[in-house]
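Hey, quick one: can you model this chain's 3D structure?
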Amino acid sequence: MKKILFLAFMISTISLIGCDDKETLLDADKIPAEIKTYVEKHFPGKNILQCIKDVDGLEVSYDVVVEGGYKLEFNRDKKIDSVKGVSKLPDSVVPEKILAYVASNYPGNYIIEWDADKTTQEVKLDNRLELVFNSAGDFLRIDD
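Sure thing. Here's the predicted structure for all 144 residues.
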């Protein structure tokens, strides 16, 4: 009987987690201060056009659109994970070591996307070339 109750509890818990997917458009006064501070520092004079809090099971992220064609993604801790633009990203959003590598090896190009996860960082250049770096910013490879 205990096994059946435990199994029923686990199934209901998993079902609740799976049903918890939702996106919420945040009003300007509900945007986390960390996100506002990041945008003010790296995109001075640009306004946040939209901020969506995305809850997907136990994962939480914030998708932010900034004037000028920039899309930012923050994790649950409100730390930046991704910056994408239709034009050159501000140098301040890309780690210095990666900026130096791109400037040295691709002097005629600039970065339009930067993504980071636990082990790697990736940048996309304006010529659509994608470069992969480790978490410390050391070049690893060109992505296919």
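One thing worth noting: Residues 2-18 form the longest helix (17 residues).
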